[in-house]
Amino acid sequence: MFLYIAFALLLLNGGFMILKMVAPYSEMMNSFKTVNGFWKVQIACLALVLLFVFLHFSGENQAKWHTSPDFVSEGDLFLGDESGSVKYNSFIYEKENYNTTLTLPYEAIDADKVRLVFSHKGKAKREPLALAKPEKEQSIELWFPESGQWRVDIEVNGSVYSSIVLPVKENN
């Protein structure tokens, strides 16, 4: 949404610049009290364009770290969506094994190379987990070295097809 607003402001800014070149003494241009008033408005519009572009991209970055949506299927709670999900019937704790079921996207079935790439909202990472014989639903064991938000990217033949963001709790 912010990008649309920025684009509209940029078009408005461009329109006024064209009007200044084509008809500098028109009624529209005379509405600015001084020449400096016109340039101040142009600079303010450009500053707003930059602000809205920044807000768009910073919000997009934060959206990557929201916990994945949950859904219930056959009495089990899952985090993710149809392109990749993890069975989530109990909390995941740091430094503890978590046995679960991973649902892979259709592109991953019988693919040559399927990996799970783990990244932490901070800077922590862990080694990717390669899946030898990918099936639609696969039992896996997850382990996370730190608490916080962890993103599991499902990578098929080098391309990320799905991401699942999991909350990992601290051990007491």
General description of the model:
The chain is of the alpha+beta class. The chain is built from three helices and ten strands; from the N terminus they run αααββββββββββ. The strands form two sheets. It has a five-stranded antiparallel sheet, with no helix packed on it. Strands 4-10-9-6-7 form a five-stranded mixed sheet, with no helix packed on it. The two termini are 42 Å apart. The mean pLDDT is 83.
Mean pLDDT: 83
Task: Give unreliable regions as ranges.
Answer: none
Helix content: 25-40%
The N- to C-terminal Cα distance equals: 42 Å
- How many beta-strand segments? 10
Describe the biggest sheet? 5 strands, antiparallel
> What best-fitting shape do the alpha-carbon axes yield?
elongated
Q: Indicate the proportion of strand residues.
A: 35-45%
Query: Could you tell me the radius of gyration in angstroms?
Result: 25 Å
The total count of helices amounts to 3
Main sheet: strand order: 1-2-3-5-8
SSE arrangement, N to C: HHHEEEEEEEEEE
Structural class: alpha+beta
